[in-house]
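Support request, please re-run this one:
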Amino acid sequence: MKKFLLALGVFSGFAFSSMIGLDALGEENVMGGTASAAGRGFAGNAKTGDAEGLSVVNPARLAFDAKVVFNLNFSMELDGARNGGEHYAYSSLSMPSFNLSFPMGSFGAMGLSLWQHYAASFEDEYKNKETHANAKLEYKGSVYELVPTYAVRLPFFRSLSLGASAHVVMGNNSRNLTLGANNEGIDKSDSWATGDYILSDYVEGAWEIKDHPAYYTGALQYRGKNASYFFSFTTGYTLLNTLDYNFRFTELDTLESSRVKREIDVPAMLATGINYRLAKRHNVMMDLTWRVWDKDIENIAGGWNMPEVTETQTDFMVSLGYQFDGSPLFYESYWNRINYRAGAWYRNWYIKDVFEVGGSIGGGFPLGRKGTTIDVAFQGGKRFSDVKSEWEEMFVGLRIGLTGIATWGQERR
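Re-run finished. Output below.
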């Protein structure tokens, strides 16, 4: 059993660095997760334009759109974690967001987003041929949000807009720890009698908001001739995770079963940002989000003496970005119609002593005459900790998005 626990300790180290907070909420995706935002360092929530579409952190931006915007995004990431002489590598593939928005003239604009807020995915196996010991650890889960949004420009102050959105939470999670037979200390002539028995500690559950159908975001946006600003406030809420624990023997017989409800108090969030336009097509932008966690998170844990809580810290992110807007004129050269992007960010994760720095470059490549684009972003960076016993993680990623633009309900000129 000591060797099993040692293997579990190794798994815990890998899990923490590879997928942040597996026993808590998992790795948090940056608000919205679009490929266009990733290309400029996740800045630009104050930027307005026909192809900007819905912003999860700034619903008020939607009021300035003049066309229907459809947006679908995919993310691929390669990570390598190191601690001393140890090294671990993994890859992931996800769909961070899907967005659809459409304007309604003087009645404002509406939008809908499906956004992956948190994700946890990890699987690894340990085997020892000499002792016939083996262990397997697997995490799966996501917290998705369905986000309907409405925004409108003020009647007598057309440079100002108000926006609001509701975040309906859904999703599930599971963890399976399997321990195989251990013949250590048993005479070889008698080892046949021990069999190939397997013990499995399995837990699965679902996510929802406690006592409310959703949590909410409200925002104010100002769009000037050269500069745009926004300010938003997102309410705090309590996530309820109903978990069923099953301790199994040989994956067939359940020795012990129990149901536990853990509650995670997610604090309110403040966000603000600015976009400044130079010479019509050059955009410099900065965004800031701030959330003060004051309570630790109860872990999924449940057995094998695993830690009961994940300690938290103030979660904030500052991002800087640049975008050169391509020409909207179809007859100009293709290279002059591309949107060029670059950016960088620094972030405190919600987990204590975990930080991240990163940078990105990207582009929006037009397809056809109607304004449809393929957005591509390359990003890389490092997640690190002040605690030497934790793993440091280097990552590189690729995000690809399809942005379609239409004029539904509008007369052709």
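The helical segments are 2-18, 35-39, 334-337. The first helix runs from residue 2 to 18.
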